[in-house]
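Weekly modeling sync, notes
Attendees: AB, CL, MP (scribe)

Item 1: holo prediction request
CL wants a bound-state model with glyoxylic acid before deciding which constructs to order. AB pointed out that an apo prediction alone won't tell us much about the pocket. Agreed to run with the ligand included and paste results into these notes for async review.

Input as submitted:
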Amino acid sequence: MTTTLPSAAVLGARAFAALAGLNRFSDEPGRLTRLYLSPAHRQAAEWTKGAMEVAGLTAVIDAAGSVQGRREGAMPGLPAVMIASHIDTVKDAGRFDGNLGVVSGILVAQALRDAGIVLPFALEVVAFGDEENVRFPTHLSTSSALAGTYEPAWLEARDPDGIRLSDALVAFGGDPSGIAGLARAPGSIAAYLEVHIEQGPVLEAEGEAVGIVTAINAQCRARVRVVGEAGHAGTVPMSLRKDALAASAEMVLALEAVAAAHPQAVATVGVLRPDPGAANVVPGATEFSVDFRSPSNDTLAAMESAIRDRFAGIAARRGVELSFAPYARAEAVPMDEALQAALAAGIARTGANPGARRLPSGAGHDAMTMAAICPAAMLFVRNARGISHSPLESMTEADAGIAVRVLLETVLELARRRA
Ligand code: GLV
Ligand code: MN
Ligand code: MN
């Protein structure tokens, strides 16, 4: 095999240049917000398709809005090694979450093409579009389409403006009726690899540029609705109120206490909307999100029953109605041991992190859904101060370059194993 591969430094510079290109597309001026099926998502998908083509991949934007690129191996139709992540973002996002993984895949494809390396498998790079699940109450829907686990009910889901997912998909240029056909045949993906910013402080604290993910934590998301009674803020005595927002505030604190009772568990209310939302009206209703996670499936189940009990107690004491509706659940997903070993070999060949630090992921990733149909593994990259889902999210160009080089070496390691 030829050794004319770009150095980590060159790959880092290419990665940062590509990220600058991709992150020009935002739904909001002055900050990065790229929600699933938005105009900025369409622009980013077009940009990604073009970048894949420049890297020698045949690329399409698929029926669900993902960008899929493929380069055949030694003969057409071989099972693929798929490198993927996502190009949708949270609101006011960081530049690396998802985007780094997509750019890494494209740079690996480009480096292999430039070096004239023919692989004993096809190489695919995918940019998923609905990893953050910020706009619609779905769960990793675009990777679920490939995994064959897409829930048809998601097409009826509505965003906060009342737009149906299927209508948004058609406006984007996708095709709801084509989603079932995206499911990959068993055995057609030999391995799934995802590079991702750590979104936590462990690698930085331990002085490691990259680390290997052992498992992705279990998680549950629910929509909660509390209905009390609206009234005049000046006239309804405190003892006669059914203030839905005050009840919800108690629930938020109860949620925090439930998470605090379980080591390594976390729980968050990220959205809370009072209705009608006026300074002189006692809030008659609220809707809020609940997101809770744990490395253990059993702990997650125990947390859910504690949360339901605590919320029901608060609702009964305050005389408000409560509905608690989970809409996304994912069990903890272990990463494939053989692929973890391949990543460790890639790290050793790159000369980074001799220890190949292993760590679990508290964040959800498309690798969770893909692990249902193929061996899957992830490489984390050091994250300054562990800050993510924030414009302050950052990493160094040098670390990005190390990660892409490790990914390249890992693909070559998989090729050696197949040869
Ligand atoms: C995705 O970033 C998540 O919420 O874990
Ligand atoms: Mn992500
Ligand atoms: Mn994210």
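Recorded for review: The longest strand covers residues 218-227.
Action items: CL to compare against the apo run; MP to circulate these notes.
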